[in-house]
Amino acid sequence: MRNTRPILAWETLLDLEAERSDARRPLRDRVEAALRLAIDEGRLSAGAAVPPSRTLAETLGVSRWVVTEAYGQLVAEGVLEARTGSATRVAEQAGGAPVRTPPVPRSVALLTAPPTRFDLRPGIPDLRATPRSRWSAALRTAVAELPDHDLAAAHPHGYAPARDAVAAYLSRSRHAVADATRITITHGATDGMGMLARELHHRGHRAILVEDPSWPRLRAVADDNGLRSIPVPVDGDGIDTGQLRALASATGARAALVTPAHQFPLGAALAPVRREELVRWAREHDALVIEDDYDAEFRYDRRPVPALQRLAPDRVALIGSLSKSVSPALGLGWMLLPPDVAPPASTAPPSLIDQAALAEFLTRGDLERHLRSSRTRFRRRRQRLLDALERALPELTVTGIAAGMHLVLPLPPGASATQIAAAGTAIGLALTPLARYEAGDRHPESLVLGYGNLDDALVEEAVLRLAALLGGR
Amino acid sequence: MRNTRPILAWETLLDLEAERSDARRPLRDRVEAALRLAIDEGRLSAGAAVPPSRTLAETLGVSRWVVTEAYGQLVAEGVLEARTGSATRVAEQAGGAPVRTPPVPRSVALLTAPPTRFDLRPGIPDLRATPRSRWSAALRTAVAELPDHDLAAAHPHGYAPARDAVAAYLSRSRHAVADATRITITHGATDGMGMLARELHHRGHRAILVEDPSWPRLRAVADDNGLRSIPVPVDGDGIDTGQLRALASATGARAALVTPAHQFPLGAALAPVRREELVRWAREHDALVIEDDYDAEFRYDRRPVPALQRLAPDRVALIGSLSKSVSPALGLGWMLLPPDVAPPASTAPPSLIDQAALAEFLTRGDLERHLRSSRTRFRRRRQRLLDALERALPELTVTGIAAGMHLVLPLPPGASATQIAAAGTAIGLALTPLARYEAGDRHPESLVLGYGNLDDALVEEAVLRLAALLGGR
């Protein structure tokens, strides 16, 4: 059965690499050409759904914009068909009759995403420092000690010991007002956002205020569940609560998604007066604030700021996960909800074993142990990156507080972050334009430099290569 | 913060046990009374969503019918509000002002689901025989050996090694026509059914033919995703393909959900002529057949029948999982799809570590090793159960082929399976009326006796208690 069309393997289906030799050709053209080729050769047949743009963007290692532009062109030509609220598909008249062609060999997958030597992607922890032996020990204990009776029982919002352990962790480490009965165990922040978005939609919400710029994945999940995202500007004090009020009245939005501890990606901490103001707005308008607590534990200049949730447990839903603090491979996270917010239980929750391991990992103090060593590692790496940038690009000034796993580098006038990032890809340097996270064009052309997974030994070389790209534009 | 309303903890919120002393009171009345009490006391506030009926039924260990009846009564009285397509909620005028009451202590959870000494629930494997050390070894290897690079990569339809291993397993063990590019790794059959239902709905399907009786969970997932389920009668040769054709023409349904290896719960294997006929229907009407391969590996009189998918890889989607063959605590399953069926990737797939462990478990042959020992165990237990039934209830005749983990016991005329099951609950005997799985009333009053998790040492005592219940009716 090797002789069938590999419809599902997007990473093997689109051979971007075949086009890559022509480095001057824009990425969107190459994605478009690869899609066209797959359709012409019958590897993608009429009616087949193409993946959501963000999924394909992640699979191919390109920006979402590249994919939406490529899809847009092919829709305009009638090669693809887009319908609101559902997948984009290959048009019925697009390809010829379905043709059985030999599958693309798996090795092509490696070509489409060349090994990234200098990993400056934001939002990824140090993959080399994954606490493998500690997580393995937690799993071993979970598998050995889970009572037989619990193995087949229903755990609608999560396994009780995991909910207890998360509540205790959030209380002591994030100073949240946390009770186990208000915790839901999730697969991560995206999963939690999905459940909350469905619940908000059910309650009649049709819009949500989001920071601009912000993490596109959570906005996309809101969109996918019928909540239009309304961008609110961000400045050095975090989200602009004055503009938030104005946009909320103009649109009727009564929900907001924010990153108070460390705005993503600009890096501000939400100022105390704005915290108060945000909560006041929520109270006055019966609104829900969703606090994405994604890297709150990594603060290098002072103790982490307590969760916003502490100020208003009745108005703030906190979503968190181990994906950015420990590893995305664990697929575990949580929500802490106000008493009157109760989304239906997931039909596909994390496995009981994973949840029991989470309980074990938290109860043993392994998470905090890992966070401590990560803090030390990231603080040093951040300083090293700042020093290297100061030496190689003294005219540029990074922005953002001493926190997290990324910083923002505004580029000199005339430089295009998108072009620099495209050129970086060709030499194993993974760079991300700030524009990828923006709804409007509010900020100067910038790169978001993540250092969570940047090899310590390669910091200086990464910066020298970046400087060369900037010098050679 | 222990002083808040435990909105999410349904298992602690409804104190069925407080009502249980009055054993003559029907279960639905007791569920209704518990809901009423929770609302009156402010534990459930106005606007709060109650769980889907099947979730609450599972949580409380009662039949779904009990919950839908209780909800129905409260909706009729205006205490709850039901809206099509969304959660049932506490009506605005139902409770008083939200009152802060002390939480129900966790120990109440144990009371609502008393320890089931004689576990005759169908669909649950032997929890005492969970291959803990083998699964633990697979997890250990996965955590130790996953390449750093894979930890943060996108795996839209599953981790490639897991897809490879599942394809190989389905080819050699189920004789399926399986290619890794057509495999999606899921959390289990329910998760897979959810993805397929959404895809079918997207393609314009609004109905699905289902066996009657059948597993309610998968039907419910189809319903929740906009596919009305149309019951098709089942006889000793499996689903009645003549009636299927008639009902398909009458309703326009072009999808069918079937259990060809071992009809659940009646226990027939789908006859060869019907297999051919089912595939012919699908080909003639551009239809999709979903093969729920839930316990196909457990056949005691001959080799397992190959998967229906083998006959028509272009028309049959096979869904399977480890939940009934190994343990529901693993939260892992798979789909094998026709080339032109490609649902969008899940936003909350199983964790990478779990998927790598699945690959390891399958590749090592651990699944087949576990299935072999389970087959021996279940064959003996089934015989022992048949012998005990023959001695204690010689006038009754069980039905179903020598397969799986359950059998069907038609009751003597006049006996009520629902009453027997309710009486069983009070003495630690978990019994399931066949009616729980039926859409119509096609079959004689029967009990479905699962023996997957029945303690070998208690088989005879379980049957004696059952005989006493039947004798004392």
Oligomer: homodimer
Strand order of the largest sheet of chain A: 4-11-10-9-8-5-6-7
Low-pLDDT residue spans of chain A:
1-8, 17-24, 94-113
Q: Structural class from helices and strands of chain A?
A: alpha/beta
**What is the highest CATH level, the class of the largest domain in chain A?**
Alpha Beta
Radius of gyration of chain A: 23 Å
DSSP strand count of chain A: 15
* Tally of helical runs of chain A: 17
What does this structure look like?
2 copies of one chain form a homodimer. With 473 residues, chain A is of the alpha/beta class. The first copy, chain A, has 3 domains: 10-112, Arc Repressor Mutant, subunit A (Orthogonal Bundle), CATH 1.10.10.10; 118-128 and 369-471, Alpha-Beta Complex (Aspartate Aminotransferase, domain 1), CATH 3.90.1150; 132-367, 3-Layer(aba) Sandwich (Aspartate Aminotransferase, domain 2), CATH 3.40.640. Chain A is built from 17 helices and 15 strands. An 8-stranded mixed sheet of chain A has the order 4-11-10-9-8-5-6-7, sandwiched between helices. In chain A, strand 6 (228-235) and strand 7 (238-239) form a beta hairpin. In chain A, helix 4 packs across helix 5 (64-76) and helix 15 crosses helix 17 (459-471). Residues 1-8, 17-24 and 94-113 of chain A have low confidence and may be disordered. Chains A and B meet through helix 1, helix 4, helix 7, helix 8 and strand 4 of A and helix 1, helix 4, helix 7, helix 8 and strand 4 of B.
